[in-house]
Amino acid sequence: MLEGWVALGPAALYMISMSITPGPNNVMLTASGANYGYRRTLPHLLGIALGCFVLFTAIALGLGVLFERYPVVQNALRLIGSAYLLYLAWKIATAPPPEFSDAAAAKPLSLWQAAAFQFANPKAWVMGLALMAGFLPEGGPVWLNALLLAGLAEIVAFPCISLWAGFGMAIRHWLTTPQAWRRFNVVMGVLTAACVFFILR
């Protein structure tokens, strides 16, 4: 059992490299950090961690095999996820500058929305499949090993994705005019929409 957990170090390095690189989550976190700040983006961050934790654990317990046997389920999830991502991209691209937005109407992604999106996020699937295939210890109960490894993965990943929200907050200081805000939001919306290509390819 102990020998299997020697792989925790490499597993942590793998999660750092995958979590800190660009993807749908990090693009949206940058936009959210710029528009809403870190505190209001925190439910989005926690939702990503929760969704990935559940997804990674489910993969280890057989969800990946289920999708291989029934591709129609995976394809349907990809289409739903792509449509939802395009909707989010439109909301980001058309968001007014913070000082002109309705504080009550303008809301960042919620914890449950962010968590549910991970099941349609191709990068999350790649991370989870590789993590569980490469680093899940062989000795001991599979469910316990899966929970511990998925938990470790999200503890490591959380500071990495938080950097993207912080990056958005840093960019905020450069956006001094309504025109600059609108351009930034359009660019973030386009980048978010572009992620659909990686989902549907």
Automatic annotation (TrEMBL):
Question: Taxonomically, which superkingdom?
Answer: Bacteria
What are the record keywords, sorted? Cell membrane, Membrane, Transmembrane, Transmembrane helix
Q: What GO cellular component entries does it have?
A: plasma membrane
Q: Where does the record place it?
A: Cell membrane
Regions that span the bilayer: 45-66, 111-136, 142-171, 183-200
Q: Please give, as recorded in its UniProt entry, the membrane topology of this protein.
A: Multi-pass membrane protein
Q: Name one GO molecular function term.
A: amino acid transmembrane transporter activity
Pfam families, per this entry? Answer: LysE
Q: Which GO BP terms, alphabetically?
A: cysteine export across plasma membrane
Protein name from the UniProt record: Lysine transporter LysE
